[in-house]
Design goal:
It is built from 19 helices and 34 strands. The protein has a 6-stranded mixed sheet, with helices on one face. The chain has a 5-stranded mixed sheet with strand order 28-34-33-30-31, with no helix packed on it.
């Protein structure tokens, strides 16, 4: 059996081989490497294994691991195949005309011309090894008068080794999709596909222009084996998002379609531009997520059926010159949107307009970039079928064709003028095709360069632009801020976009993570900013400026006050707020916009928040915690399109505060400003301020003398309290000193401690002594039996001061004089000699290295804040 397998970066290092084991025994494996990660490790491969025995309805576990031996033996050859009676034939009856194609004739012609090679136009060798080889041949269908100008047939011939050969899989593809042929139109015909003794026939097929369809038949024996892959590993690879730990029910999977007829649309939406939720909309469609979460064969067939159904939408434009999807690199002025004159290429002096319809062109199935599904990506990933790779490539390329050539910057293929949701899904598809297309494919660099160019444009427009909006929202013309007289945008569309950038970052595209750090703040702030109630983070529209030419707001708090003036100032999720919102129709913890629906606006927000957590964005874990603990949630069991979750378990830490005054000290009678910023907090309270904002500043004063200010910040992970001691410049910080005589004693001796302080109101002892102390004095302590540290802490209007002294206790006559003992003959010097040496050289002393560094850092922090 043959299947596709994705690998996590580093799991199969460059040069490593794979082995397959069944019940602990190694079985033959052929690995056709397709794509690699940046570190050279294997990303995607088409794998063939030989299972010696498999009874009907049996399940066997095959384990893949590194360390196997490379496959040996000659590849299955074209001579091996042509030595049999193999043939596959296509016959189309178009009115009175018969069009035919023969796989054997095409293979013999390619063999005689020696044209079979990887990515060959006449004969593409897709797989090659001792277990299986696959050739792809095809071209225009032939009639008695010559080749058809519009219809073509392709045979994907997968021949398995055998003596004699007895198992060949043939995927027959019929296309009506040449790009530059005059008068393209719909064509009606009866079709008969014959592979050995197996026949598929269908009458009255209305084959729309720029579409295709396919059907798989086997020559002689069929390998009726299903490879049930590890869906959890696929998600862990980062090739797709991480989903909640759920599975579709058996009763649900029993109802889903398993195949489609030619030009059928299955569960795809006929007019994709129709408003409202669609089963195909999301990071992945309903059928693909059902497959990932279960890898059940019913879900697998459902996914393939709907990717097959996508073949009936007119997005397929094949270049006859190259045999591949037409590219804007070759034709930078071609477009589906614009006038004939706008397609003039000044470099060639030719117009690149598509030929006009030459008859009936009535495809009822309408694609739309703003509602574009993911098509072909996962199907190719898990099957390794070239057909689904081209499905993905055609749709990714169509995203560029449906934009005016000038708007997309011609060959650069920028998606910036689509609706925000269209940009999101287009970037998703473009990233997927660049990620999964084989390394040696002629279109690999085309797609990789295009996604990198798009990411670079967004970084230039937003991330690295000091004039970009501070919200983290997509605001570029023409379709971002076009609600309510161009003052508002759609947060849910922006959330789609945020997930898409997170997906590109997960795929490893340069610049995506940088942009993600800027972008995710819009979703996170709507959940955590104290000036914005998270219940309406899923609002349908959100005001972001006062007028069409006005500047954008500085934070989401301003947006909230403008969009919800009746709610501003009311505590979030409080009875007062709920009573004022929606005439009391919402319950506590219920977010706006179909909160219980798996396709509602809160569900649309979920993948964006998960992307923020995965990127380690500040407050993202707090935002996820709030979102995950809302009271009204959807059931994603059978509709998991938006059930994306963070890759790691979210543990919300306790709040952390940054609280200081600047300037400090202050000129007597002048003002100072308190600054605070708390992360992982939902509110901060203090007696000297109003509101619960977790970040801000407040001017206080005049300052005469010394004052203490406290603040407490609370979040799901607990609370934190901070204090600031503010003084005027006439108030001096306390200075303290502490000495011990002698500093080294014998066991059982006493020691005299002497201390002094200036500008202190009181002092206290700790460590080897305790209790309140006068501001200066002397005390005898002992007898001592071991090394002892004595601490002195003094407080005054100017702050705090500390001192510490350590008395060392040792045996021998040298104790009273403080003379160090002589070294011993042991391998290591005595510990006390090390300590003394550190003290003498100004080292860490009794605090130890880490304490010393921490105190130094604290001193630097205070100096920065008072500068």
């Amino acid at each position: 059996m043959t299947f596709g397998q994705i690998f996590k970066e580093g799991d199969v290092p460059a040069g490593a081989t794979l082995r397959a084991t069944l019940d602990g025994h190694t079985i033959p494996i052929q690995v056709d490497r397709k794509a690699t990660h940046a570190d050279g490790s294997l990303r995607h491969a088409v794998i063939t294994v030989l299972v010696p025995e498999l009874s009907a309805s049996a399940r066997r576990l095959i384990t893949l691991s590194t360390g196997g031996e490379a496959a040996t033996g000659s590849p299955v050859s074209l001579d091996d195949l042509l030595a049999t009676s193999f043939d596959a034939q296509v016959s189309l009856q178009v009115g009175s005309q018969t069009l035919t194609a023969s796989a054997r004739q095409l293979l013999e012609q390619a063999q005689s011309q020696g044209s079979c090679r990887p990515w060959g136009k006449q004969c593409n060798v897709w797989l090659s090894g001792p277990q299986v080889t696959e050739w792809i041949v095809g071209g225009p269908l032939q009639s008695s008068t010559g080749p058809s100008p519009h219809l073509a047939a392709y045979f994907y011939i997968r021949a398995y080794a055998g003596d004699p050969m007895h198992r060949v899989r043939v995927n027959v593809v019929i296309e009506n999709d040449w790009t530059w042929v005059a008068a393209p139109h719909d064509i009606t015909y009866d079709a008969t596909l014959t592979v050995g003794s197996n026949v598929y026939s269908k009458t009255g097929i209305d084959h729309y222009r720029q579409t295709r369809w396919h059907h798989v038949l086997w020559w002689r024996d069929k390998a009726a084996v299903y490879a049930k892959l590890d869906g959890s590993y696929i998600q862990a690879s980062k090739a797709v998002s991480q989903y909640a730990d759920i599975q579709p029910t058996d009763s649900f999977l029993d109802t889903v379609i398993q195949s489609v007829e030619p030009m059928g649309r299955g569960d795809q939406t006929e007019h994709m531009d129709a408003s409202g939720a669609q089963a195909a909309i999301g990071p992945l469609p309903k059928w693909t997520t059902a497959y990932l979460l279960s890898t059940d064969q019913r879900a697998f067939r459902w996914m393939l059926a709907n990717d097959d159904a996508a073949s009936s939408y007119d997005v397929y434009y094949r270049d006859k010159k190259t045999g591949r999807p037409v590219t804007v690199l070759d034709y930078p002025y071609m477009t589906l949107l614009g006038t004939y004159n706008s397609t003039y290429n000044p470099n060639t002096g030719e117009y690149e307009a598509f030929p006009a319809c030459g008859g009936e062109c009535n495809d009822p199935n309408k694609p739309n970039a703003a509602h574009e599904p993911s098509i072909g990506y996962v199907s190719y990933m898990v099957t390794g079928d070239f057909y689904y790779l081209e499905q993905l490539q055609f749709w990714a390329n169509w995203n560029t064709l449906q934009i005016n050539s000038e708007y997309r910057n011609h060959e650069q293929g920028l998606l910036k003028t689509n609706q925000v949701r269209g940009q999101a899904w287009g970037l998703r598809t473009l990233g997927d095709v660049a990620y999964i297309t084989p390394d040696d494919a002629p279109l690999k660099s085309y797609f990789v360069d295009m996604i990198r160019t798009n990411i670079a444009w967004y970084n230039e427009r937003y991330t690295n632009n000091p004039d970009a909006n501070k919200l983290g929202a997509i605001t570029a013309k023409p379709y971002a801020v076009h609600y309510v007289d161009h003052t508002s945008l759609a947060p849910w569309q922006d959330d789609f976009f945020t997930w898409a950038i997170g997906h590109l970052a997960g795929l490893g595209f340069s610049g995506a993570e940088e942009f993600l750090r800027w972008k995710t703040q819009f979703a996170v702030d709507r959940m955590t900013d104290p000036g914005y109630c998270w219940l309406v983070a899923s609002a349908y529209t959100l005001r972001v400026r006062d007028g069409r030419d006005a500047p954008f707001y500085q934070d989401v708090g301003e947006s909230y006050a403008a969009q919800f003036p009746d709610l501003a100032g009311l505590g979030c999720n409080t009875p007062e707020m709920l009573a004022a919102w929606g005439n009391g129709s919402y319950e506590s913890g219920e977010m706006y916009g179909f909160a219980s629906s798996p396709t509602g606006y809160p569900s649309n927000l979920q993948p964006a928040l998960a992307a923020a957590v995965d990127a380690g964005i500040a407050n993202a874990e707090l935002a996820w915690h709030i979102f995950a603990n809302r009271s009204v949630k959807p059931d994603y069991t059978n509709e998991a399109m938006f059930a994306v979750v963070p890759r790691e378990t979210v543990v919300v830490p306790a709040p952390q505060m940054d609280f200081y005054a600047s300037p400090n000290p202050v000129t007597p009678g002048e003002m100072t400003t308190l600054h605070w910023n708390a992360i992982n907090a939902t509110s901060c309270t203090a007696s000297w301020k109003s509101g619960t904002a977790v970040a801000g500043e407040k001017q206080i004063g005049p300052i005469n003398g010394a004052f203490d200010y406290e603040m407490t910040c609370t979040g799901p992970g607990g609370e934190a309290t901070g204090s600031v001691h503010v003084i005027d410049s006439t108030v001096r910080e306390p200075v303290v000193s502490l000495t011990a005589s002698p500093s080294t004693v014998s066991a059982g001796q006493n020691v005299v401690l002497t201390w002094d302080s200036e500008d202190a109101d009181w002092c206290a002892a700790s460590g080897g002594w305790s209790g309140e102390l006068l501001k200066q004095g002397q005390r005898t302590v002992g007898p001592l039996s071991q090394d002892t540290a004595f601490d002195l802490y003094c407080h005054g209007a100017g702050g705090d001061a500390e001192a510490k002294v350590v008395v060392h206790v040792q045996s021998g006559d040298t104790a009273s004089t403080g003379t160090p003992a002589e070294p011993t003959d042991s391998d290591e010097p005595p510990v006390q000699q090390q300590v003394v040496a550190e003290d003498e050289t100004g080292g860490a002393g009794a605090f130890g290295g880490l304490d010393y560094l921490w105190l130094l850092g604290l001193a630097l922090l205070r100096r920065r804040r008072t500068a």
